[in-house]
Structures are given as structure tokens and as C-alpha cells.
TrEMBL record:
Function noted in UniProt: Involved in the gluconeogenesis. Catalyzes stereospecifically the conversion of dihydroxyacetone phosphate (DHAP) to D-glyceraldehyde-3-phosphate (G3P).
Species of the source: Pseudomonas flexibilis
Keywords: Cytoplasm, Gluconeogenesis, Glycolysis, Isomerase
Main location: cytoplasm
Signal sequence extent: none
Name used for this protein in its record: Triosephosphate isomerase
Annotated InterPro entries: Aldolase_TIM, TIM_sf, TrioseP_Isoase_bac/euk, Triosephosphate_isomerase, Triosephosphate_isomerase_AS
């Protein structure tokens, strides 16, 4: 049985004051048993969140890491080793906002993925198609290429200690959600792609859905057989809403 994971990606949101408020809200949540929960604040607030959530069963992650695992001369970047040292357990790799706006290449993403694992972090590899790609009937092809690029560089075994997040770009921050059936089709294809190389890895890997997940639509998405939780953006900035999504993964 795969343990569901619900992770809240705070993106570039927050101030020290609003983060403190969110921590207070998270601390008060009744959390479901059997669900792994994480929040992913901007790197600047990781320490505040790690300290603030001490004793609460909520892990902390980062939104990005450097291509080099260890500290060194790389101005403006943060090494996976430093994230681990600060109490992170996860790191997002290849979020579509970074692929699209910052031009992160697939070669770079495999290095970040490897750097994260070298430091004991769990990479959460984000993949997904744009609206134009979906309309052109290329969804599965795009997602297979994005996943395939990491498998090719690092081998399927790397996914024994990683999470995949399917996030259709057209569903991110738009209020449009993939239907449970649309999401399931892609999740099943991701798992099938991994299965061609390793049945064990395919069976164990958690595949999260992301893109306008809310308390109101989470349960029907999480009920699908290949959806193992969610990567939540906007709705994770509200502790009560996030808590309700986490509980939906437990039911
Ligand atoms: P929204 O939940 O705001 O659509 O964001 C999804 C996302 O990009 C999470 O990484």
C-alpha cells in the first residue's frame, strides 16, 4: 500500500508575519493518520517553519535546489546539503513555473534530482503538459518525455526514493482542475512507463496530482487508483482548507 502524501507548495508567498500565522493554523489542525503531510515554503522561511512545526507531524520541503549537491561557489543558489541541514526532507524539482519562466532544462533537472537524493532529500519531480499540448493530443507524449529524461539520466531505481507530481500546466492557479478520469489516465501512464523498467518501483512510487486542488474536489481525485495524494498551491495557504484536503487523502 502506498502511503498518501499531501504537500503544500507555498510558492513565492509569505512574510514572516503571515508565515507565523499559517504555522499557528497548521499546529491546530487535526491530522489524519496514515497520510504523510508536508509544507514547502520559500527557502527564506524554511527555518521558521521547521522550528514552528516542531512536534507536529508535518514535514518541510524546499521549492528548488542547486545542481551541485554540496555548498560552494554558486551565488544565489542553495545546495541540497544546506536544505537537509536546515531540516528539509523534500525538494520540488522541475515545477512548471521554473521550467517555463526560468527556462530550467531537463539536463539541469536531472542534476538537481540527483543532488537532492545525494543529500538524503526526497525529490518531487513535477511534470505536466500545457493547454496547447493537451489540445494537440500530446499529453502522454510530453509527460513520458519529461519522466523519461530523468529515467535515462539516473535510472529507474532513482524513483524508489522519489515522488512524481503530475501537474497539468493549464490547471495550475486557474481554477480549472483535470477531471479525476483525465488525471487518472495520465497517472496510470506514468506508472506504466516506470513498470516497463521495474515493477517494484512502479508499485511503490507515489504519484501526486496538482492543479487547483481544493477541499471541494480533493476526495474524488484521491479516490482514483493511481492518484496517491496532492501537490497543493493556492489552497495550501489557508490552514483549514489544507487540513481538509489532507483529511480527504485519509478517507
Ligand atoms: P494551484 O493549487 O494554486 O493550482 O497550484 C498547483 C501547483 O502548482 C502546486 O505546485
Amino acid at each position: 500500500m502506498r502511503r498518501p502524501l499531501v504537500a503544500g507548495n507555498w510558492k513565492m508567498h509569505g512574510t514572516r508575519a503571515s508565515v507565523a500565522e499559517l504555522i499557528r493554523g497548521l499546529r491546530q489542525l487535526a491530522l489524519p493518520v496514515g497520510v504523510e503531510i508536508a509544507v514547502i515554503p520559500p527557502a527564506l522561511y524554511v527555518t521558521q517553519v521547521v522550528t514552528g512545526l516542531e512536534g507536529k507531524a508535518i514535514g518541510v520541503g524546499a521549492q528548488n535546489c542547486a545542481v551541485e549537491p554540496m555548498q560552494g561557489a554558486l551565488t544565489g543558489e542553495i545546495a541540497a546539503s544546506q536544505l537537509a541541514d536546515s531540516g528539509c526532507a523534500y525538494v520540488l524539482v522541475g515545477h512548471s513555473e521554473r521550467r517555463q519562466i526560468l527556462g530550467e532544462s531537463e539536463a539541469m533537472l536531472s542534476r538537481k534530482f540527483a543532488a537532492a537524493q545525494a543529500c538524503g532529500l526526497i525529490p518531487i519531480l513535477c511534470i505536466g503538459e500545457t493547454l496547447a499540448q493537451r489540445e494537440a493530443g500530446k499529453t502522454l507524449e510530453v509527460v513520458q518525455r519529461q519522466l523519461g529524461s530523468v529515467i535515462e539520466q539516473l535510472g529507474v531505481g532513482a524513483f524508489a526514493r522519489a515522488v512524481v507530481a503530475y501537474e497539468p500546466v493549464w490547471a495550475i492557479g486557474t481554477g480549472l482542475t483535470a477531471s479525476p478520469e483525465q488525471a487518472q489516465e495520465v497517472h496510470a501512464s506514468i506508472r506504466a512507463q516506470l513498470r516497463t523498467e521495474s515493477a517494484d518501483v512502479a508499485r511503490g512510487v507515489r504519484i501526486l496530482y496538482g492543479g487547483s486542488v481544493k477541499a471541494a474536489n480533493a476526495a474524488e481525485l484521491f479516490a482514483m487508483p493511481d492518484i496517491d495524494g496532492g501537490l497543493i498551491g493556492g489552497a495550501s495557504l489557508n490552514a483549514d482548507e489544507f487540513g481538509a484536503i489532507c483529511r480527504a487523502a485519509g478517507s
